[in-house]
Amino acid sequence: MSVSSSAVSSLRSRTGVGILACKEALEEAQGDEEKAIEWLRKRGIAQAAKKAARDQAEGLIFLKEGEGKAALLLLRCETDFVARDENFQTLGKRLVTILLDKGQTAMEVDAAAALPALIQKTGENITLGEAHVIEAPVFGCYLHTNAKIGVLIGLAGGTPALARDAAMHAAAMNPLYVRPEEAPSDLLVKEREIWAAQLAKEGKPPQIQEKIMLGKERKFREEHALLSQPFAKDPSKTVGQYLGGAEVTAYLRLAIGG
Predict the structure, then answer these.
(1) What integer is the mean pLDDT of 192-206?
(2) Which fold has domain 55-135?
(3) pLDDT tens for residues 64-116?
(4) Helix/strand/coil percentages in the chain, nearest 5
(5) Contacts of 118 (CB under 8 A, 6+ apart)
(6) DSSP β-ladder status, 69-77 and 58-66
(7) Which sequence spans correspond to the domains of the chain?
(8) Which residues contact 129 (CB under 8 A, 6 or more apart)?
(9) 124: pLDDT confidence band, cut at 50, 70 and 90?
(10) Which of 1, 48, 90, 232 could form a disulfide with 16 if both were Cys (CB 3.0 to 4.6 A apart)?
(11) pTM for the whole structure
(12) Of residues 19 and 161, more confidently modeled
């Protein structure tokens, strides 16, 4: 099968293995990165391939603002000790700058070239996590002081100050989506199963259960939507009311460990 250059770059950044070996592994694994790592490990091609199987529960989030756009990037590692390493932080700052200025592909190419050496130097598995660029007429950015939570919010209308306040709110309250009607169906299915089991245990009649389920769903949608959450700085109004006529056109929240 044909293997994309981005897939090869991703595997190379995780394993430290050469381009040709990564390409062969992905071809053998039909493009499945995890199976490609297994293929490399079975052949003892590189020690870094063993590191790729280890969890990366730590890391940092990097933020870069530009004219009318901003970038957010997550760089993962195994321990907070490596996350505090100057080389790790320098690489993250460089990658997020490339992401903002030149785009995802250029950033991945740079990462593929730089990560193997850093993996060998630190002895830890280090990989790229999520990487995003948003563009908006108005946007607000927030990066928590420990660089473990980062938020971007784009607005049509409003001011940068409003957008930043909304971003700070999102960092603290972790809304899962922007509007109540945008709640993911798979998430609702799981919650409904839990509610149904709880109500059945309570012995509620079926007709009553349905009404209660509808109420629970409406409450769940509102509690986890950015615009309907009580605004952290002034709970007497929702975030939507605080923003007034400004429309949220983009929302992104990245966090280490959640």
Answers:
(1) 84
(2) Tetrahydropterin Synthase; Chain A (3.30.479)
(3) 999 889 999 999 998 899 999 999 999 999 999 999 999 999 999 999 889 88
(4) 50, 25, 25
(5) 87, 88, 91, 126
(6) antiparallel
(7) 5-51, 55-135, 184-223
(8) 59, 73, 74, 75, 76, 254
(9) confident
(10) 48
(11) 0.75
(12) 161
**Residues, the chain, total?**
258
56/114: higher pLDDT: 114
Fold type of domain 5-51? Helicase, Ruva Protein; domain 3 (1.10.8)
The dihedral region occupied by 85, where left means phi > 0, alpha psi between -120 and 50, and beta the remainder, is: beta
Secondary structure class of 76 (helix, strand, coil): strand
Task: Give the whole-angstrom CA distance, residue 73 versus residue 92.
Answer: 8
What is the third-level CATH fold of 184-223?
GTP Cyclohydrolase I; Chain A, domain 1 (1.10.286)
Q: Which secondary-structure segment (H or E) carries 22?
A: helix 19-28
Residue scoring higher pLDDT (221 or 52):
221
What stretches of 78-188 adopt beta strand conformation (E)?
Answer: 127-135, 138-143, 149-156
